[in-house]
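Morning. Coffee machine broken again, so started the prediction first thing and wrote up yesterday's gels while waiting. Chain of 493 residues, entered below exactly as on the submission form.
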Amino acid sequence: MDMLMSGIGMLMHWDVLLALLVGSVGGVVIGAIPGVGPAVAIAILLPATFAMEPLVGLVMLLGIYGSSMFGGALPAILINTPGTAVNALTTYDGHPMTKRGEALRALGLAYGASFTGGVLSILALILFSPVLAKVAPMFGSREIFLAALLGLVLVVLAHRGQTFAAGALAGLGIFLGTVGLEPVKYTQRFTFGQDWLGSGFDLIVVVLGLFALSQAFDLLSSPESAPDAQPIRGRMGRAMTEVLGFKRIAGVGAGFGVLMGMIPGVGEFTAQFLSYTYAQKTSKDPDAFGKGSPEGLVASEAANNAVPAAAMIPLLALGIPGEALTAMMLSVFYVHNVIPGPQLFQGQIDFVYALYAAMLLLNVIVVAFLLVASNGLLRIIRIPTRFLGVMILVLSFVGVYSLRNSTVDCALAAGFGVLGLVLKRQNLPVVPIVLGMVLGGIMEVKLRSGMARVRTFADFFDRPIAAILGLAILALLTLHFVGLYRENRNRET
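Came back before lunch.
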């Protein structure tokens, strides 16, 4: 409890609170704009956060990450266009309710479920933090290497039907991370005598290209559009309280969000579909799902908003990001020499609690903002897509150039932007490239340091956690290949 109060004390500074307010409100606004999403916003803001204190910068990024799904529900429900990718399932039941004249009720349920899921997940993680503080020191170099490898395997296997492409793109990310000076002996790798490759591919340049610039190119090359939506009439506060009638669905959805968020590479989509499937199977009216079921709406929104807090667990406890947004946040830690991992839970547990308290407070700020600003956000939905594209393009290049005042970085970012656009048009995943870069670097350093005490292959797994992680990787790969074999056999028959 003393550490929790210390963390809250760290949060109660004007600059931290201002960053949280800007991130929370800005995340809702960004989420409400179809086609932008938190990844683009965080990628653009990332260079600016390097000049801030670590808690200030991280709180701002967390505000955007945790609040964007609230805003993404608005266009998903009103115009059948998800503001963020994870709000796609919200359209299944949210928009049919709007067509029935229940837009206010649908938004109230979505906001109430998101708030419930977010708060329950954070409270659960605050209670679990003492356990994590005890478990984290048990992770040595070998365990962190295996945990990173497990995360990479999960990221690849999570892309069902695209595992080969996801694996290849993760391999590309690992290769990109090896270009330049290697981290132990500082020898040149894959530079081919080119001076501009000596410092390698900066993660922020790659992220801005793959996410922000690719989105700008996509918006600029697509037909102009400016969606319209009718104003919402009624009391939003009363509509939000209706979620209390679906306490079981919201609680289970939050549980799925916590569990799936803690597993690297799984995230919101799996949590949502598990929660949605559970709600449908236990519903008294399963046929209404997909046609405007309040239960389906609550299940999807409670699950997706419970994930951000849980996704911070592998990042903080092991220094292993589970998806692209937490990978971006990892760079903020490194810039300020705050190294996430076991030592963070041992020596700076108050910093961890400050982040949890910030996520709890952001949910309160967002709900208060939505109570008064939902109709104002409708104007955001109507922004022309070409104008958005130009704004993202300009801000992205400004962010890239500000990193090292390098036109080479701008050219590289544009190249990765084109690559991101091609992958997007081919419906191929971009996230494995970023996670390959981040996790590949972690794996290389930890493998080299861990091998100093290894004489035989069996020595690598001679500790309980290492053995468990090794068996988990083996089991996942075995199950995947068995599943592929059965699918092929069924097709032949």
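The chain is about 75% helix and 0% strand. Going to sketch it on the whiteboard this afternoon.
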